[in-house]
Write a structure and sequence with these properties.
By secondary structure, this protein is α+β, with helices and mostly antiparallel strands. The chain contains six helices and eleven strands. It is 21% helix and 29% strand.
């Protein structure tokens, strides 16, 4: 499947509608299990930190939780569900408790015994009506998406958190899958580490298949110490008003987090309990 970058970029206009509904503060962050990286050679010289526990990781998790305290919904990628490297701590649960999120969910996509439990996570202050675990297609298993629903009909809010594969062909299949999963809904937010740029063919598959918008095409998030690549994204339906979007300069990982403030349509009602 081929699509021109020009056709894709035409869809990247600001989402707009009259602000009327509830405001929601979003964040998407690949935290690399709380492991700071300061240069590319750290991946090799400090590779042991990806399999063994460190004091720095716990300190970073505390700082990450403090940073997330001002947000209503956070999508996490590269969290550990409880293994040797995390000190057998479920990092999604730990951050949720530290930042006082009443609702949290995790999805473990690649289990390496006691060594690593690769997961996605979501933290939210509003009560979801449904959370579903989706294994994304790919030759090598281990990628997934969490689909969180607020409300009970087609006008409800759907939030997708995902971490895509490194291969282009596989990413296209994965985004085709996600496009089908959310196609019947009017109010959708998709966030995560897509491992590709806004004008890539695979992102065209997503945006043209769902009519989602990327409000800002130049949010450079990787590598965190010298960001040059826009790999992390938050996309929204045209029904959702984007009030603000930015990359935050918190270097607790090899990625930087994206933060976004949105205004929901009046038809979407979020519940705290």
């Amino acid at each position: 499947m081929s699509m021109s970058n020009e056709a894709c970029m035409d869809t990247q206009t600001s989402a707009g509608s009259e602000p009327a509904g509830q405001r929601m503060r979003l964040m998407s962050y690949n935290i690399q299990t709380g492991t700071s990286t300061n240069k590319f050679r750290d991946y090799f010289t400090q590779s042991w930190r990806h399999v063994l526990p460190t004091t720095q990781r716990m300190q970073n998790l505390i700082q990450i939780a403090e940073m997330m305290g001002d947000y209503d919904l956070v999508g996490l990628q590269e969290v550990d569900a409880g293994s040797l490297r995390s000190g057998f701590i479920n990092q999604t649960e730990y951050i949720a408790n530290q930042a006082h999120f009443p609702y949290w969910f995790h999805q473990t996509n690649r289990k390496l015994g006691k060594i690593a439990q690769h997961s996605n996570g979501v933290l939210c202050r509003y009560k979801p009506s449904q959370v579903s675990d989706h294994k994304l297609p790919g030759t090598i298993p281990g990628r997934g998406a969490l689909i969180v629903r607020f409300g009970g009909d087609k006008m409800s809010l759907i939030v997708v958190i995902m971490h895509l594969s490194l291969g282009k062909r596989t990413r296209i299949k994965q985004l085709e899958y996600i496009s089908r999963a959310v196609s019947e809904y009017s109010n959708v937010v998709i966030m995560g580490d897509m491992n590709c740029a806004p004008d890539s063919p695979e992102m065209c598959v997503l945006m043209q298949g769902t009519k989602l918008l990327e409000p800002e095409p130049n949010l450079f998030t990787f590598p965190s110490w010298r960001p040059k690549h826009h790999l992390d994204h938050i996309l929204v339906s045209p029904s959702i008003t984007v009030e603000d979007v930015s990359v935050l300069s918190h270097t607790y990982s090899d990625h930087l987090p994206i933060a976004m403030s949105i205004r929901l349509p009046e038809s979407v009602q979020l519940e705290t309990e």
